[in-house]
Specification:
- This protein has one domain (2-239).
- It is built from 10 helices and no strands.
- The protein has helices spanning 2-8, 15-27, 32-79, 84-90, 92-118, 128-138, 143-158, 164-180, 184-213, 215-239.
- α3 (32-79) packs parallel to α10.
- It is rod-shaped, with a radius of gyration of 28 Å.
- It starts with a helix and ends with a helix.
Length: 242
């Protein structure tokens, strides 16, 4: 167990790994193979989450740049001597154009922020309940006791029940074990890993689609805002429209 703890990096502080280690300690027996599998899964998941976080940062940075571009253009124009600020007070149409442009930018920012928030990668606890049962079974508990102890600890750590899909998978695996006599701990660990990987793939797909979907609020909001904030004031200032 010490070797497995070292592989994970000591007793984890995040909820998922902490749950698994708590289950292992509760089991009270050597479950080195299972803990090694958990350690490998935790490392793999961390690498995938880092990759997903980097992928998520790209559309977020693009959205911020596009949203602030009209304001930057307006500021640069003022700095180079176009006197846009003077035109705001002298020409009501310029003031109205700026108000409408800023309103469109605000709406675009709110919509894009909501879209980015939905696609933000979060830690998933899917599959951990199955892992907890696997650890308990490997320590010598029968399946009924293993489910009970793993569930009790799950409630204590997460203050929630396992996902419905985990419970459904557990029923299917129990039936498979009864029919074939397979080692249930190995099946549980494999299924838990499959659930985790599928969840991460869903997150990656959401982020890939995000780049395309962001074009809608950016196109409908930022482009008109760019015209209202930059083109119209600069044109009126240059032409001297009253």
């Amino acid at each position: 167990m010490n070797h497995a703890l070292a592989a994970i990096g000591g007793l984890p502080t995040s909820a998922g790994p902490r749950y698994l280690m708590t289950v292992a300690i509760d089991a009270g027996s050597s479950v080195a193979d299972e803990l090694e599998a958990v350690a490998d899964l935790v490392k793999t998941k961390e690498r995938l989450l880092e990759r997903i976080s980097v992928a998520h940062a790209s559309p977020r940075a693009t959205a911020r740049l596009v949203i602030w571009l009209p304001v930057l253009v307006l500021l640069v124009a003022q700095l180079v001597g176009w006197n846009v600020l003077d035109a705001i007070f002298e020409k009501p149409v310029v003031f109205l154009s700026l108000i409408l442009g800023l309103s469109l930018l605000l709406v675009a920012k709110l919509v894009t922020s909501k879209m980015l928030s939905r696609a933000k990668p979060n830690d998933s606890y899917l599959g951990l309940y199955l892992m907890g049962i696997a650890i308990q079974c490997s320590a010598g508990s029968n399946l009924t006791k293993a489910k009970e102890r793993a569930l009790t600890i799950y409630r204590d750590v997460f203050n929630a029940l396992p996902a419905e899909i985990e419970l459904e998978q557990l029923v299917s695996l129990e039936k498979l074990v009864n029919d074939t006599g397979s080692r249930i701990s190995s099946l549980l660990l494999r299924q838990a890993q499959n659930l985790q990987e599928a969840e991460l793939v869903k997150t990656e797909i959401k982020i890939e689609r995000l780049g395309v979907r962001l074009m809608v609020p950016l196109g409908l909001g930022v482009l008109p805002a760019f015209v209202l904030l930059a083109i119209v004031p600069l044109m009126l200032t240059t032409l001297g429209t009253k």
